[in-house]
C-alpha cells in the first residue's frame, strides 16, 4: 500500500514538473510574441507617418504654385 502511494506521489510530482515546464515555455513564447507585436506596432506607426508625408508631398506637387508662371500668363 505504501509503495503504491509513493508511486502515485512520484507520478504526481513528475506531472507537476511537466506542467510547470510547459507553462514556462508558453510564457516565454507569449513574451516573444508580445515583443514582435510591439515591433510591428512601431513599424506600423512609422509607415503611417511616412504615408502622411508622401500624401503631403503629392498634394504639394499637384497644387499650383503661387510663384510659378502659369502658361496663360506668358
Describe this structure in words.
This protein has 74 residues and is mainly α. The protein has one domain (1-55). It is built from one helix and no strands. It has one helix spanning 2-62. The chain is rod-shaped, with a radius of gyration of 32 Å. It starts with a helix and ends in a 12-residue tail after the last helix.
> Termini distance?
110 Å
List how many beta strands DSSP finds. Answer: 0
Structural class: mainly alpha
Please summarize the sheet with the most strands: none
Global geometry: rod-shaped
Helix content: over 70%
Tally of distinct domains: 1
Calculate the mean pLDDT score and round it: 90
Helix count, DSSP H or I runs of 4 or more residues: 1
Q: Encode the helix/strand succession as letters.
A: H
Keywords: Coiled coil
Short description, anyone?
82% of the residues lie in helices and 0% in strands.
List keywords for this structure.
mainly alpha, 1 helix
Secondary-structure topology with pairs:
Blueprint: H1 2-62
